Amino acid sequence: MNLTLFIAKRYLFAKKSHNVINIISIISAGGIAIGTAALIIILSVYNGFEGLIKSMYSTYESDLLITPTHGKSFLPNTAQFDIIRQDTSIAAFCEIVQENVFVKYGDQESIATMKGVDSYYERITLIKNYIKEGEFSLRHGEIPQAVMGRSLAFDLGLRVHFVDPVELYFPSRNRNLSMINPASSLNRERVFPGGLFTIDQNFDQKFIFIPIEIARNLLEYEEEVSSVELYLKPGSDVPRLKKEIISLLGDEYVVQDRYEQNETLYKMMHSEKLSIYIILLFIVIIISCNLFGSLSMLIIEKRDDTETLKALGANNKTIKRIFLIEGWMISLSGILTGTVIALALCFTQQFFGIIPMPGNFVIDSYPIVVKFGDVLLTIAGISLIGLLSAMLPFMIVKKIENF
User: d(Cα 245, Cα 172) in Å, to the nearest integer?
Assistant: First the structure.
């Protein structure tokens, strides 16, 4: 066994002449264990919420979104779009007409984002998995229906079993504004309640889905669309297809993947995670001050032992390494204990959901996702702090200034 490691282990477990040194060492290891466990658990909870948010957004976001660079509409029946339609990796080519409209139901009014969709979208959308009333069906025979968020429906005082139609209004592009009868310059369409969904409050408050033909009539479009949403088959190469579509369509269109459709959100989530990691590391640095204190006192206590070791042939470098290894062993014991506790708690919550989510949420318990990259990053960061804390006494204690 390595001599420095052997002596460091003896110093670590041997009884000290001053019990306060043992107490401070235990407090140091315990504090590092708590800091390690807290960092792993908080990052895992954050990963769980991040995954939940991404899954919720993926419910109503397409793999690729095509929008015009200029203007609000375009024709999707060109030769370039025919080539895109024929790509074998595309599961659904969905034409979308989207615009903010005035919605009225009875005496209640609201502003909503109308999304006119075709039958391909109706077939492939995952929103149908979040329907709370009715179903995601945009037609009942020949009768056009609307599917909207439950928050929007609540504001309008609407339920699926009600028989009155929902009225949608949008200013006409072809008629002049009449000061005598302003309503005559508005286009109006009527649809009937078909289903209510619940995904997240912002989305539920905002969107109403209707047949694309009704949306075109309201906006006075013929075959124009606001965007094209592409849903790909599992295992498709999204970057490759995106690059090919950009090359095919040129600068007249913008092609965005899921990340780019919510780039600000994803950047904010990564920044928040980094901030959490840095803040908790600072807390561990403060906790490591106990390690500095216990190691400094131990160096002073073992002054006679260091003289004996020198007499036996040990040099200053060897003596420094002994105390350095002991300090690091205190840190590593805390890191190991904290990691085991954190992983046990995280996996228990992940598989059994012991801690419930408060209130009415889309999930029943706190989401936990353990990423071993985060665990390794936590261990590496706290190990480095422990090493620096173990090195610091050699810069302070005068007895070893000449080491």
Answer: 34
The residue among 255 and 321 whose pLDDT is bigger is: 255
**Contact between 211 and 139 (Cβ < 8 Å):** yes
- Confidence (pLDDT) at 399: 46
Which of 46-50, 186-190, 304-308, 351-355 holds the top average pLDDT? 186-190
Residue from 10, 35, 32, 13 nearest 22 by CA: 13
| Residue 188 exposure: Cα atoms within 13 Å on the Cβ side | 11
Contact 207, 149 (CB under 8 A): yes
**Residues contacting residue 166 through CB under 8 Å, at least 6 positions apart:** 103, 104, 105, 146, 148, 156, 158, 190, 191, 192, 193, 208
Q: Which residues of 181-218 are buried (b: 16+ CB within 10 A; e: fewer)?
A: eeeeeebebebbbbbbbbbbeebbbbbbbbbbbbbbbb
pTM of this prediction?
0.73
Could you tell me if 207 and 113 are in contact, meaning their C-beta atoms sit under 8 angstroms apart? yes
Reference 331, options 297, 276, 294, 305; nearest CA is 294
Instruction: Show contacts of 211-215: CB within 8 Å, 24+ apart.
Output: 211/116, 211/117, 211/138, 211/139, 211/144, 211/145, 212/95, 212/96, 212/97, 212/116, 212/117, 212/118, 213/116, 213/144, 214/116, 214/144, 214/168, 214/189, 215/97, 215/98, 215/99, 215/114, 215/115, 215/116
In angstroms, rounded to a whole number, what is the distance separating the alpha carbons of residues 255 and 245? Answer: 8
DSSP class of 379: H
The letter for the amino acid at 363 is I
Q: pLDDT class for 314, splitting at 50, 70, 90? A: low
Q: Please tell me the distance from the alpha carbon of residue 74 to that of residue 97, in angstroms, as a whole number.
A: 10
Residue whose entry in the numeric block shows the structure tokens 């050699």: 394
How confident is the model at residue 400, as a pLDDT?
Answer: 45
Mean pLDDT lowest among 138-142, 196-200, 326-330: 326-330
* Longest CA pairwise span in the chain (Å): 109
